[in-house]
Amino acid sequence: MIFRSICISRRRLNGKTFAYHSYIPKRRPSGWDDALGFFASAWAQSTLTLMRELVVFLLVVRYFYLFVFIKHEVMSNMKAERQLLQEGLEALTELLPTFSIEIIPSDLKEKQYDAVIQVLRGGFSVNLTVEVKQSAQRLVWGQLLNQLENASNPTLMTDYVNSVLGEKLRQQGINYIDRAGNAYLRIENAGFPVFVWIEGRKPLKRIGEKTDHAFTRAGLRVTYWLITHPDLINETIRTIAQQAGASLETVHRVKISLQQRGFLSEIRTGEWKLSSRKTLLDKWIEAYATRLQPGLLIGRYRLLKKESIGNWENQVLEMPLTQWGGEPAADGYTDFLRPAEWIVYTRQSTREVMKQLRLLPDPENGPIRVYKKFWPTDEPGQLVHPLLVYADLLISRDSRNAEVAQKMYEKYVQCLLD
Question: What is the distance between the alpha carbons of residues 45 and 51, in angstroms, rounded to a whole number?
Answer without folding.
Answer: 10
